[in-house]
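Hi V.,

You were right to ask for the full record rather than a summary. Here it is.
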Amino acid sequence: MLAGAIAGVNRVSALIYRGAMSESAAPSGDGNAAEPAGARPEFGVRSMTAPLRRVLVRRPTLTGDFAGAAWRLPDPELLVRQHEAFADLLRSLGCRVDVAPALDGLVDATYLRDPGLVTGTGAVLFQMAKPARMAEPEHLGAALQAAGVPVTARLSGGARADGGDFIWLDEHTVLAGRSYRTNAQALTQLAAILRAEGIELEQVDLPHDRGPGHVLHLMSLISPVAADLAVVYPPLAPVRLMEALADRGIGVIAVDAEEYETMACNVLAVAPGRVVVVDGNPRARAALESAGCEVHTYAGSEISIKGDGGPTCLTAPIWRDAGAE
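Predicted structure:
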């Protein structure tokens, strides 16, 4: 059963961001309009839940070794339709959606969260541990630069990292998972990169679970949905993670084992208390709604379930505007 240990329910309800972007600022197709001279840069991320003004997604490829990348073979036409519908949902919720082209043969590249991290000043490009994904960071860098986001740093040497292992606890603190995809060298380099921006990196060790052949990210276990609320799968959550949430007064919606397997823990906040989830998982959805959250669903049988990548995995946030809360 889902636990209801939820703090600040009324505050979450009050924080739900209902003000969509004005018509003049609304996204139009896949275009990237030029910024007026002197305009505020439309990028920068230091939160998991501040209003998501701009996001990058990548069309899925229909070529490549899906089985070798550990996907269950998707229906190609439905894969494309589901991704398009997902992008349309984000637009309807007030996000400007920048769409990068499919990368032939790189079936995981549609999971755009992992090759890098956008901070307050630009993008940090990673190096990836999964052999089939090693080419992705440079492609992400090109897509971000085309969208006007500068690349400010790159991991080097033996450092390996996946973006799914990083969450913002607040605008000055990133929590990083030490996993089979993110190694100690990466965390050392990232700590120095982030410190130069006034951000501290705190580390938690992820469990072995099913071993190095099965991806387990920090974001497999937690999705912040408001400043004082997160969706969590406690059985695999590191003790230090649970302590950090308790120390900060962050309430927990606990996902059960059955719905954990179908990505109930993978929740994309487009604003405080306003979230996107893959269709299904009725108990997790009911718990979110009981906490005052506004829940939006998308069909993800092909684009999410068969590739083990939910809405957070499908998105690289470009701009979260804390001033819009």
